[in-house]
Amino acid sequence: MSDRSSPSWYDVIVVGMGPAGASTAHELSQAGLSVLGLEKQTHPRYKVCGGALSARIDHILPPEFKDVVEESVHRLQFSYSPEESYFVESPEPFAFMVMRSRFDKWLMTRAQRSGTEVHEAEAVKTLQPLSDGVEVTTTKGRYLGRVVVGADGAMSVVAQQLFAGRGLRNIPALESEIFGVSEIREPLLSQNPGLKLAVISLNAAKKGYGWIFPKRDGLSIGVGEFVRGDSRPKRSFQQFSEEEPSLAGLTIPAPVGHPIPVYNRHPGVKGNKWNGGLVHDRAVLVGDAGHLVDPLLGEGILYAVRSGQLAGASIVKFLQGEQGTLEDYEHAILREFAEEFRIASKLNRVVYGLPRSWHRWLGRTFPVPYQQVLHRYCQLLQGRETYQTLWARAMHKINPFGRAAAEMEMP
C-alpha cells in the first residue's frame, strides 16, 4: 500500500474493476506494464443486473468465461401486449446469462493472474493531472500513474474530475431479481422445451421495454425508459409486474434503480465530437464511464469488455514508444462502434417513438416481414448481422416502418 508522503508509481492506474476495468487491466498486464486496479467495493460484489451477454461475446473472450455462465438463451419472446407475442428460436444461443458477482470476479481474477495489482475496498477521492501522468488520491493512499483509466461506471469520478463539461445523459432503469424460480412461464410452448427462454416486452414501458432473463436459480426482471421526456420507470415496472402473464403469481421484490449510460451525441450539433470525448491528456474512459452502451437495448457488458481491450492496446503502444497516441483508442472506438451506435439510435427513435398500437398493427398487417426483422435482430445478437445491415433490411421489408424512420432521421 502507498504511503501518502511517498506515492507509488505505476504505468497505468485503472479506476474500477468491473468488466471494462478488468479487461483493460488484463491487456496492459499481459504486455508487461505495471498496473494498479482500484476497486471501491470487494469482489464478489452482488449487483442487481440483467446480466445478459449477447452471443457476440464469444468472439472476444476465451471459452473459459462460460464457466460462470448461468444459462444460455436459445429462445426469445417479443411481446407487444399481454396476449400477443412473437417467438424466435435457434440451435445456437442468442445470449448468455451471468450473475455479475461471479462474472466480474472471474474477469478481475484473470487480470490479477496477468500481473495486475488490485486494491479492493479503496475508493478514489481526487485525481490531479500532471505533466507526465495523473496523481490519484484514495481513501487509503496516494498513487501516480503515467495514464489513468476511468472504468468506474455511469457516475464515473474520473469523468467528473478530468473530463469537465461532458454533461451526458443516462436513462433510468429499475431491476429486481426473484430467486428459486428459473423457468419463465410462456403462453405458447416450444416444440423444443429444453430451450431457455428470455422475454422482451415493448408493452412494459411507454418509451422503452421490459425484460425477464433466466438465471440458474432465479429470474432478472427490469424496465428501462430509453427516450427523453414522460419517463415513468416506477409506474412501468409496477404495471409490468402486475400484467405480464409469465410473472403471474410471483412475489417480486422491490426494484433497485440505476442509470444506464447509453451512447449519445450532443443534440443538435452536427459533426460534434461524440460523447464529449473518451481521451483527455493522460486519462481514458472505457465502458459505462465512456457511455459506450447500445442505445437501443442498453447492452453494455459487451462494449465494456471490448472497449477495455481497445484501450489496453492503444495505451501499450503509447507507453512503449511505438509511435502511438492515446487518441488512437478513441479512433478505434469510432471505427468499431460509432456507425453501429448511430444506426441503433435511429432504431431507438423508431421503436420507442412509435405508439405500441402501431407495432401491433405492423405485426398483424405485415406478419412475415415484421417477423423477419425480428429474426434478423436475433442474428445480430449472434454476430451474424450488424445494425447497419439490419437497418437496410428493415427499410426494404417494412415500408410503413421505413417511412416513419425516415421522418425521424437524426441530425
TrEMBL record:
Domain FAD-binding intervals: 10-331
InterPro entries: FAD-bd, FAD/NAD-bd_sf, Geranylgeranyl_Rdtase_fam, Geranylgeranyl_reductase
Superkingdom field: Bacteria
A Pfam family: FAD_binding_3
Full protein name: NAD(P)/FAD-dependent oxidoreductase
Originating species: Candidatus Nitronereus thalassa
Taxonomic lineage from the root: Bacteria, Pseudomonadati, Nitrospirota, Nitrospiria, Nitrospirales
